[in-house]
## 1
Amino acid sequence: MAYLTLHKEEALAEAQRIDDKIKKGEEIDLLSGIPMALKDNMCVQGGRTTAASKILDNYIAPYDATVVKKLKKQGAVILGKTNMDEFAMGSSTENSAYQKTKNPHDLNRVPGGTSGGSAAAVAGGLAVYALGSDTGGSVRQPASFCGVVGLKPTYGRVSRHGLIAMASSFDQIGPVTQTVEDAAIVLSRIAGRDKKDATSAKSGGKLYEDYLQGDIRGMKIGVPKEYFSDDLSSEIKEISIKALEKFKKLGAELVEINIPHNEYALPVYYITVPSEISSNMARFDGIRYGLSVDDQEQSKIGGGNLLETYLDSREIGLGTEVKRRIMLGTYALSAGYYDAYYKKAQKVRRLLKQDFEKAFESVDLIFSPTAPEPAFKIGEKTTDLLQMYLSDIYTVTANLVGVPAISFPIGTVEREGKNLPIGGQLMGRWFGEEELLNAAHTFEIN
Amino acid sequence: MLKKEDIMHIAQLARIGLKEEEIEKYQRELSLVLDYFKKLEAVDTENIESIGHITGSHSVVRDDKIIECEAKIIEEIINNFPDQKNNQVKVKSILT
């Protein structure tokens, strides 16, 4: 199941309103009346918003997220809220506290994560498009697993106001769509500076769909040596090389480049993200909203009234992966370890950003597979922590350095008689969504 | 490997209640990930500053003016309080 909550009445009422407008011959926007889905970590006023966690089981959002406000203004028909890994932590949507979501291409497999419900809904025809959030690949990896398009905009391109925060220096909201053109259309309507998100940037009302010329002649596409090492399976490598040859045929120039600090991207990611998580998740304390538990029994590590509420609410309300990351981050930020973990990671993050600045001096875009494999089986990786983390190897870097990145279908592999989609990823320059979308679009239409 | 006391200390800092059997599990898992982080020791970060804002924006401020919140939003925020009295969130006593 892709949806956690349906907004049946509201959706029908909005559809009726748009129908009436059409009947009267009024002008409507491109997105008016188009049924769409929202990942359940984005607030819709008066609607249940759980982030797939038991701690927010009864939470009713008091306001609209900025993206929701913008889409409502366009007359979007919001069908409901989609399943995800709890608080967007995971790679398969198996960490949802509520239900499993299956991959429409093979029901024994995961849809990817964390925006797995959004990707499965679009791939399965249950929504024309959906919004997801991407902290380390959570829009792109499920898009790759489900054979659809997923865009992570530049950090700051889309307001995060009303998105339940995971790691605030990484999180970006992005569209999951059936085509690159759709991704451009949706981005145009959710992007822009927002007073309620100090990290958001001006977009100048740009219509990204106007930049899809379908011509990439002379464009330079970087191919990082590090991304095509022997660790990459031969079948994914083969499909990626075919995609690169197609780009070449379309007139792009392929340039071999280096990202020297690439091998450190995952450890840097898994130090800095849990650190930000441990801070952001402190708000779930059983006091202000959400689940509040106090069994009045002294737990082993605490004592006292108020402390018991914190300890019990969080013990019962939060899932294993969430607790694990909060504890990892707490450790990385604690006295005596801060310099060795967090500070060190933030330094290496700067070196990675410098690698990208240097790479973009000689190329316009950077290509890689989106994920090292097709969708894996439900339950296959739930016991192996590091294996699960490794599925983010190609996607975390864009969030670490802040650049925009898109995943789009480049081929399929066969597993047990089923064709499973494989996604290719392009990364672009900071705030260079026009070039990025044009390149993926040109690939798609040819 | 992290000791049992380390896990208890982290959990206490993070305000997460743990069951006895979970302590051992987290000892194992957190140690595994922390070992993986050791990879970073190989990177020379001498004279490298920690990164700040990733796209370089800084000191974003707004006018110091009170912006009124819509009554409906206030009402819904209050409705989300697990416990309330006279429209205030009710908290258990800290000092007893």
Note: The beta strands of chain B are 84-85, 88-89.
## 2
Amino acid sequence: MAEIFWGVIWPVIVLAAATVAIVVPLLLAVAYLTYAERKIIAAMQLRQGPMFVGPYGLLQPIADGLKLFFKETVVPTRANKGVFVLAPMITFILALIGWAVIPFGDGLVLADINVGVLYLFAVSSLGVYGIVMAGWASNSRYAFLGALRSSAQMVSYEISMGLIIINVLMTAGSLNLSEIVRAQAEHGWYALWHFPMFMIFLVSIIAETNRLPFDLPEDEASLVTGYNVEYSSMTFALFFLGEYANMILMSAIATILFLGGWLPPLEMAPFTWIPGPVWFFLKVAAVLFVYIWARATLPRYRYDQLMRLGWKVFLPLSLAWIVLTSAVLVFLDLAP
Amino acid sequence: MTAALFVFYLLAFVTVAAAVMVIAARNPVHAVLFLILAFFNSAGLLILVGAELVGMLLIVVYVGAVAVLFLFVVMMLDINFVQLREGFLQYLPVGALVGLVLLVELIMVLGTRVVPTTAAAMPRAAPEGVTNAEALGRLLYTDYFYLFQAAGVVLLVAIVGAITLTLRHRPDARRQDIAAQVRRRPQDTLEVRKVRPRSGI
């Protein structure tokens, strides 16, 4: 009996505790990301932002969450009920399971698997299903059009993202996310070596998560709000949470691949006093700020411009950079 | 081992059940969704035997790309379900014959093989001390290099073929020429005139 307890049940308990320890702060981070977004955009537009609920409006996200929680879920007539309810769940779950392989610090990772990068890539490539299913199951033209746009967009930008990731993998010589960060301790941050790719990656993650200026799927002016028009209360909240959790996840991926994960910017005294997870958090926050900054300052792209940027600019550029990187690695004998 | 066995039976059961639902589902979109579930669980089975790279690639390629296109096409089809059901009995003998041939072939293939019953006797996904990616890369880029390249060429031909089949040059379509927009200067398009009151240009 004790054998079964220590062999099977105890590891499950430990895993569950670790999962809760990741998911609860993540949900809080999502809630306060919406607050930060509103405050930053307000500051950029010389407004106040939320300021009535709690001191400085700090309880606003909690109030918003409660409001959504207590509303009624409306299912449209002739909607495909099963798929309609499944779609927001898929979006939300996919936004959470990616965090299983993210290293927050040296050794601070739930699942230190050898194919971590591929796992993240697989999870992000599944994100399109939640949106397509929502658009189809809603039995609404706006929702369906939004879903079609969104899936074309996500599939397009995934390709250039994959090619950019290949550059980092070749330089680091591993598919393990912790190993990639450790390789950057040796080589320096890849944002320096692969600077153009870092820029393209930043733009691609904004497009991949359907955020402004690439938020065509929910283009308010022409599609109402796209795939989630018919959703209300918690089902809508799950889409919303999923979108913001995806933003944080993508920022974390950018941090790990290009900004040296938990590493301090310089291996010197004042920087090394701050623990790794804090650096990780600060870097993720910096990338998230870019997201919000872009949203506040740039106008929305037209659909054909978006596709042109993905296929005719980013794809050839990242392919050319792969050739360059592999040539440098082979001919200078630097390949790991 | 018992935990692994439990996970195996769970994944295997869901795979088979989802595969049955693919052909049993009335709604084609549901059928594609069940197909995706089947892919997903087979990826889980691959990871369970230690072939993690192939499992992840199965999800990235089949679930992330191929099945999305399936879903796309099926969702946009306007299908009459009643018409789809007609002629079911008519095709039944042919379908049953194909199924029977496949079953016999499967039995013949599996009958000649010794299926390992213990975990130690099972083939390994990768040699000891080498990651999946490294093991696969060594095989692909040494022993099977020409076949690998040939597969790439076949894919390239498929891409070029698909593009030439669907690309139409429409002379009346309005396209954005970004180079022309950037090249444009104020003096090309603007003219400053002095307009006297009540006289027009």
Note: DSSP finds 13 helices and no strands in chain A.
